[in-house]
Structure formats: structure tokens, C-alpha cells
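Appendix C. Worked example: NETI motif-containing protein
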Amino acid sequence: MPNKHKKQKFIVGDNETLDECLERMKSEGYIPVRRIEQPIFKEEIRNNVVEHVPCGRKIVFEGKLQ
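Step 2, the predicted output written as C-alpha cells:
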């Protein structure tokens, strides 16, 4: 059995629910200790000015080995 890290980050996939990600963490032996949400931006040109417009978010769970 390979050595596992004490902490690991789990990214919620595009076609994955939060519950599915948490279940994946549990099956690998980790419990969630932190949730991080990072905004995703895209560039749009409006009136010859480049603006950064939010278009989604990335959710990452930090897990601690049980």
C-alpha cells in the first residue's frame, strides 16, 4: 500500500456534484477540513476596453487523512 499524504486537495469536476466529490474523498480515506471557492473569469471587450467578467467557479476541498 503506497504512503498517503496527510493532506490532499480534491477538485470538484465539471460533471461532478459536491456530494460525489465528498464521497470520493471518503473512499480514499480523507475527511474534508476546508472548502475553497475560486472564481473563473473570461475576458470580454466592451467599448474597446478589456473587462474580466466572472463566468464560473472552481470548488476545491482540502482533505485530511483519517
